[in-house]
């Protein structure tokens, strides 16, 4: 089994969602939920005196969850590094832009500045006794040779992890996989992580592709909250690693309660067909699919509903086949049936089509008995 880990950044990246601001108590409850899911590391927030609750969260976590790894995100600034040294997170995740557009257009700086600033910040953090990582902002739009230079320098200056950020979500699974492979080939001991954005709907796919290409960890956010279209969703990444890749550290049954809590306090809706979380993802009325599910649920289900706190709903409607209708009737009557008339099948389909919805069991029984 791969030693893949999830770094959840709901409390930092998730709070960057416009209109979202968690109270200290809400952050504690989210943190408790992340521990139940089995997340390895939680990025508690930003290392700055303007974000004082980070220290309180660290104290809470040390008491309530002593095995959880705690990190803070930080600019490469001495005052922010000093703030982290006061609160002693397990990891300080420094961040530096590496694309020319960010360096030149946003900061009016250049590559040489980025190199010198990163190295000085890493050295300073280590002098303060901190375990330090570095995040490369906008890595997918950076020059690959410069990115490799930065990665090798980061390792030399003591970074234990390098995080590649797809800041505007332009990566594809193939691109992200190739980038991870390329950077990993330059390193001797430093671990790789990814931070994927969802601008083209590929954040989860890119996170999984990065892990399969050799990254050690991927960032996630509950409900995929974050800037613009958000980031890789915790529920999708964790469920895939747990239910498909058999990661024993993760517990998919706790994803829905956490997601519902975050949805409630942020006012975000969970659509019925939302992967892992939606109330309708185990609902079926289509003929061939319904027949397969009645015979063996594994025919059309990647995992059992119970794994994510859901239940299966097999509905009879306008798209249901004769055999599925007969099987459903047999289940209701607790005995086999093979004498269902064509008139009854037609009545079931036509009524469901007129109502534009599947039938309740009561409606279904009545139609069959009257036909």
Brief digest:
The protein is of the alpha/beta class and 371 residues long. It has helices spanning 24-37, 53-64, 78-87, 100-106, 111-127, 144-156, 173-184, 203-213, 234-243, 255-266, 287-295, 322-333, 342-355, 361-370; strands spanning 5-8, 41-46, 69-75, 91-97, 132-137, 161-166, 191-196, 217-220, 283-284, 313-314. Helix 7 packs parallel to helix 8 and helix 13 (342-355) packs across helix 14 (361-370).
Tell me what you see in this structure.
- The structure is a single chain.
- By secondary structure, this protein is an alpha/beta fold.
- It folds into two domains: 5-266, TIM Barrel, CATH 3.20.20; 283-370, no CATH class.
- It is built from 14 helices and ten strands.
- It has helices at residues 24-37, 53-64, 78-87, 100-106, 111-127, 144-156, 173-184, 203-213, 234-243, 255-266, 287-295, 322-333, 342-355, 361-370; strands at residues 5-8, 41-46, 69-75, 91-97, 132-137, 161-166, 191-196, 217-220, 283-284, 313-314.
- The chain has an eight-stranded parallel β-barrel with strand order 1-2-3-4-5-6-7-8, surrounded by eight helices. The chain has a two-stranded parallel sheet with strand order 9-10.
- Helix 1 crosses helix 2 (53-64).
């Amino acid at each position: 089994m791969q030693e893949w880990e999830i770094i959840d950044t709901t409390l930092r990246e998730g709070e960057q969602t416009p209109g979202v601001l968690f109270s200290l108590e809400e952050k504690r409850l989210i943190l408790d939920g992340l521990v139940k899911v089995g997340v390895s590391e939680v990025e508690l927030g930003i290392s700055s005196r303007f974000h004082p609750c980070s220290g309180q969260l660290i104290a809470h976590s040390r008491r309530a969850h002593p095995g959880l790894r705690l990190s803070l995100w930080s600019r490469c600034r001495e005052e922010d590094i000093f703030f982290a040294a006061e609160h002693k997170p397990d990891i300080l995740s420094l961040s530096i832009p590496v694309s020319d557009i960010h360096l030149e257009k946003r900061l009016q700086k250049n590559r040489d500045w980025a190199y010198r600033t990163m190295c000085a910040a890493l050295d300073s953090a280590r002098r303060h006794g901190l375990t330090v990582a570095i995040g490369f902002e906008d890595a997918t739009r950076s020059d690959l040779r410069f990115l490799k230079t930065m990665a090798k320098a980061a390792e030399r200056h003591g970074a234990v992890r390098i995080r590649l950020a797809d800041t505007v979500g332009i990566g594809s699974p193939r691109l992200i996989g190739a980038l991870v492979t390329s950077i990993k080939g330059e390193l001797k001991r430093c671990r790789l992580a990814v931070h994927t954005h969802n601008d083209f709907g590929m954040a989860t796919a890119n996170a999984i592709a990065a892990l399969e290409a050799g990254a050690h960890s991927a960032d996630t956010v509950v409900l995929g909250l974050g800037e613009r279209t958000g980031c890789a969703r915790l529920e999708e990444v964790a469920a895939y690693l747990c239910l498909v890749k058999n990661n024993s550290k993760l517990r998919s049954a706790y994803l829905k309660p956490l997601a519902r809590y975050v949805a409630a306090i942020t006012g975000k809706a969970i659509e019925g067909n939302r992967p892992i979380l939606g109330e309708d993802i185990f609902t079926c009325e289509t003929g061939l699919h319904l027949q397969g599910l009645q015979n063996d649920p594994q025919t059309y289900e990647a995992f059992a509903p119970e794994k994510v706190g859901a239940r299966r709903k097999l509905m009879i409607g306008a798209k249901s086949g004769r055999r599925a209708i007969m099987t459903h009737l047999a289940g209701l009557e607790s005995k086999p049936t093979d004498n269902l008339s064509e008139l009854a099948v037609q009545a079931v389909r036509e009524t469901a089509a007129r109502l534009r919805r599947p039938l309740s069991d009561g409606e279904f029984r009545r139609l069959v008995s009257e036909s």
